[in-house]
Amino acid sequence: MANFNGIIEPFITLDDEIRTNLIVVNTDNASNNDGAGGLESEYTRISCADHKVDTCISYVLKKRTREINGIRLPAFYEFEGEAPLVFNQITNCKKAVMATK
């Protein structure tokens, strides 16, 4: 929160109505963005569309895991072979998110 407050410090002296309408924060849906130690509730927060798409796809398509000889293999999408372009886009979106972090 200290880093966030440092970034918005130039805007803190603005009129309350202007400040709360001016500052919009883009985050993922993590619960640590709310409540104590999270973002101030006075600011508008919008969720990252890429995170929402990934959550939906991950839930609907459900990543699977397998074990071979007691070794757990990396998670995979069961239907990746059926729609390779869709899954390539998922991979590229995740790379874009990681690159911006």
Note the topology.
Layout: H1 2-12, H2 16-22, E1 24-27, E2 44-47, H3 49-61, E3 63-64, E4 67-68, E5 71-72, E6 76-77, H4 84-100
Parallel strand pairs: 1-2
Antiparallel strand pairs: 3-6, 4-5
Written description of the protein model:
- There is one protein chain.
- A two-stranded parallel sheet has the order 1-2. It has a two-stranded antiparallel sheet with strand order 3-6.
- The protein has two domains: 46 residues, no CATH class; 52 residues, no CATH class.
- It starts with a helix and ends with a helix.
- The chain is 48% helix and 16% strand.
- It contains four helices and six strands.
- The chain is of the alpha+beta class and 101 residues long.
**Into which percentage range does the β-strand content fall?**
15-25%
Which strand order do you get reading across the main beta sheet? Answer: 1-2
Low-confidence spans: pLDDT under 50, at least 5 residues? Answer: none
String of helices and strands: HHEEHEEEEH
- Mean pLDDT across residues: 75
The first-to-last residue Cα distance is 17 Å
* Structural class assignment: alpha+beta
The number of distinct structural domains comes to 2
Radius of gyration: 19 Å
- Main sheet characteristics: 2 strands, parallel
Beta strand count? 6
Q: Helical segment tally?
A: 4
As a percent range, the share of helical residues equals: 40-55%
Shape: elongated
List keywords for this structure.
101 residues, two-stranded parallel ribbon, 4 helices, 48% helix
